[in-house]
TrEMBL record:
<comment type="pathway">
    <text>Lipid metabolism; sphingolipid metabolism.</text>
</comment>
<keyword id="KW-0812">Transmembrane</keyword>
<feature type="transmembrane region" description="Helical">
    <location>
        <begin position="6"/>
        <end position="32"/>
    </location>
</feature>
<dbReference type="InterPro" id="IPR025993">
    <property type="entry name" value="Ceramide_glucosylTrfase"/>
</dbReference>
<keyword id="KW-0443">Lipid metabolism</keyword>
<dbReference type="GO" id="GO:0008120">
    <property type="term" value="F:ceramide glucosyltransferase activity"/>
</dbReference>
<feature type="transmembrane region" description="Helical">
    <location>
        <begin position="318"/>
        <end position="337"/>
    </location>
</feature>
<dbReference type="GO" id="GO:0000139">
    <property type="term" value="C:Golgi membrane"/>
</dbReference>
<dbReference type="Pfam" id="PF13506">
    <property type="entry name" value="Glyco_transf_21"/>
</dbReference>
<keyword id="KW-0444">Lipid biosynthesis</keyword>
<comment type="pathway">
    <text>Sphingolipid metabolism.</text>
</comment>
<dbReference type="GO" id="GO:0006679">
    <property type="term" value="P:glucosylceramide biosynthetic process"/>
</dbReference>
<keyword id="KW-1133">Transmembrane helix</keyword>
<keyword id="KW-0333">Golgi apparatus</keyword>
<protein>
    <recommendedName>
        <fullName>ceramide glucosyltransferase</fullName>
        <ecNumber>2.4.1.80</ecNumber>
    </recommendedName>
</protein>
<keyword id="KW-0472">Membrane</keyword>
<comment type="similarity">
    <text>Belongs to the glycosyltransferase 2 family.</text>
</comment>
């Protein structure tokens, strides 16, 4: 009987401490977000020229926003850059989009690479390999197809590339778009993900998502270049680990990444989150315990039970107050990340937030139960540690 009581109290104390730590994360993320995000750019030194940047754009297929998103790369205010578009298949609707833009902006240095080189399992790396090898400049920006740039986004990223910094990435966020799925995406990236991302950046923990990343080519080349990471599906995590292991600093820039894919529906978004969760579990197995425990509904329930064991507090009242405070903190963080008015009202926020918070733990469970990973038209299997293997046959899109 006594060991059981000790175990019970042990769990209760653990949950209560974890719950308290989550509030600390909330507070740190809000203050650090206010400090780090949307800062005014420092004036660049007049006697130092801007470093050139080679921008790799891996493309596959078309969506309704592709042309508009790609166009923002031609209209950036940055003096020296080249655009390297990489398209895996010779026949892809993205080819026409890119060719038309290259014709429209003849003054911008741009090249189209058709056809991937198989250097590993990761199709994004295979797609970019040739362009990376032929890129001209020391700084390379890897930028996914759905990213939209502001005029000064590249300058903002370059400003963070100090002497000790090897990698600058944008924290994932979204453009303002209409509809429930867009609201859901904005809420997820601006709350649950930003919270961890900001704290990880402050503590210099690897939490790099490679949708928009500026890196030093010479450092990657010391270890064979991009192709070395082709055996992983989560190349972004291992690239960042490589820079950190070599003693380089990594940081987020002040502008969050504006994801603006034309494909925006709840099913695709949830499939994407589930795919990412599978990657995280394979790379950092401890997230199996810590990630569900960091969800509002789960840790709230655990802490409500713990508070009734430890202090005989009313569990239901505790749970409801917990949810309300979490909701308020999330609103504060989201408005900080957005840095302007949101494209939805507080009621829309409430509905989509509740949906996200209730579906989050379910999606995570789903990711653990079905470990195979579908990415576009391919299916992969991951071993612990992150090495990937493609499972044939491919899916016809
Ligand atoms: C007491 C509190 C403890 C808190 C513990 C928190 C536990 C973790 C909880 C949540 C994790 C959220 C992580 C958010 C970012 C991850 C997004 C992601 O999964 N990205 C992956 C996929 O990216 C795409 O991959 C394919 C590529 O081609 C695309 O271009 C990419 O966009 C990416 O691969 C993974 C990146 C990093 C994963 C790190 C996971 C560990 C996080 C631990 C953070 C701990 C923070 C410190 C708290 C104290
Ligand atoms: O087989 C693939 C899958 C993806 N990509 C590119 O990799 C980037 C990220 O792809 P996606 O948006 O599907 O990844 P997510 O952000 O959902 O992880 C995009 O620029 C895609 O064009 C690619 O070149 N080949």
């Amino acid at each position: 009987m006594v060991p059981m009581i000790y175990t019970l109290y042990g769990f209760a104390i653990f949950f209560f401490i974890y719950w308290s730590a989550m509030w600390l994360l909330h507070i740190i993320a809000i203050f650090y977000g206010k400090y780090k995000l949307h800062r005014k750019l420092p004036q660049p030194a007049l006697d130092e020229p801007y470093p050139g940047v080679s921008i790799l754009k891996p493309l596959m297929g078309m969506d309704s926003n592709l042309a508009a998103n790609l166009e923002t790369f031609f209209t950036m205010s940055y003096p020296l850059y080249e655009l390297l578009f990489c398209i895996e298949e010779e026949v892809d609707p993205a080819v026409t989009v890119v060719e038309e833009l290259i014709k429209k902006y003849p003054k911008v240095s741009a090249k189209l690479f058709k056809g991937a080189t198989t250097v590993g399992v990761n199709p994004k790396i295979n797609n970019m390999h040739r362009a990376f090898e032929e890129s001209v400049y020391e700084l390379v920006l890897v930028s996914d197809s759905g990213i939209k740039m502001k005029e000064d986004t590249l300058l903002d990223m370059v400003c963070y590339m100090t002497d000790k910094t090897g990698l600058v990435h944008q924290m994932p966020f979204t453009c303002d778009r209409n509809g429930f799925a867009a609201t859901l995406e904005k809420i997820y990236f601006g709350t649950a993900q930003s919270r961890i991302y900001l704290v990880a950046d402050l503590l210099r923990v690897n939490c790099h998502t490679g949708m928009s990343t500026l890196l030093r080519k010479s450092v990657l080349k010391e270890n064979g270049g991009l192709k070395t990471f082709g055996c992983y599906l989560a190349e972004d995590f291992f690239i960042c680990k490589y820079f950190l292991d070599k003693g380089w600093r990594t940081t987020i820039s002040s502008q969050p990444a504006l994801q603006n894919s034309g494909l925006c529906d709840v099913n695709s978004f949830q499939a994407r989150l589930t795919r990412w969760a599978k990657l995280r579990v394979a790379m950092v197995p401890l997230v199996i315990i810590f990630e569900p425990l960091s969800e509002c509904m789960v840790i709230g329930a655990c802490a409500a039970w713990a508070s009734s064991v430890l202090f005989q507090w009313d569990s239901l009242a505790f749970y409801l107050i917990h949810i309300l405070l979490w909701f308020i903190c999330d609103w504060m963080l989201l408005t900080t990340v957005q840095n302007g008015s949101l494209p939805f009202n507080k009621f829309d926020f409430l509905v989509a937030w509740l949906f996200r918070e209730c579906s989050g733990p379910y999606l995570f469970l789903h990711a653990i139960i079905y470990p195979n990973i579908q990415w576009r038209n391919r299916v992969f299997k991951l071993a612990w540690g992150g090495i990937a293997q493609e499972i044939t046959p491919r899916i016809k899109c």
